[in-house]
Amino acid sequence: MLQVPQRLKAFAGYLVLLTASLFWARVCTPKQEIAGGSKGDFLPPTAGQPLTVTPSDKPDVSCSVVEWNGAPTKPTLTVLCPPEEIFAPLHVYLKVSWLKAEDVPADTRGIRAPARTPTKLRTNKTAVWLWLGVQEKQDAPPRKKWVPFSGVVDVALLSLPAKR
Fold first, then answer.
1. Model pTM?
2. What is residue 62's predicted lDDT score, i.e. its pLDDT?
3. DSSP string spanning the chain?
């Protein structure tokens, strides 16, 4: 059996362990809630200034079309890079258009970009270029070509759920 001084030492040791474990639990508890099942956190709304593209030249990036909106006033193209089928911890949701109405190419009505169409993205100092099908004549099949976009409308980082 334990003697009185040993009991005091054991009790003191127990108190030290209890205090340390309670303190450690406070330090390790996350201070910020993590949204479960969130598809992504979008950036705050714009302040009215256009976001210009100033990348450094890099190799082509694989993407897939999410949506093509060919509205005559402001056409926009939304892409997901890399495509949803490719496993990646983060995906970039990118919506591009043109900064000025005079920058919009004449052949935008002929752009054929159905959802989930694979595409490529490339950048230079002035534009984001996307490899898209463009129907130049009414009865002709779409021909692939690089289409330049001068402005970014929206951008977000997404963590897509794993497919099971």
1. 0.64
2. 94
3. ---HHHHHHHHHHHHHHHHHHHHHHHHHS-SS---TT--EEEPPPP-SS-EE--PPP---EEEEEEEEE--SSS-EEEEEES-TTS--S-EEEEEEE-SSGGGS-GGGGGEE--TT-EEEEEE-SS-EEEEEEE--STTSPPEEEEEEE-EEEEEEEE-PPPP-
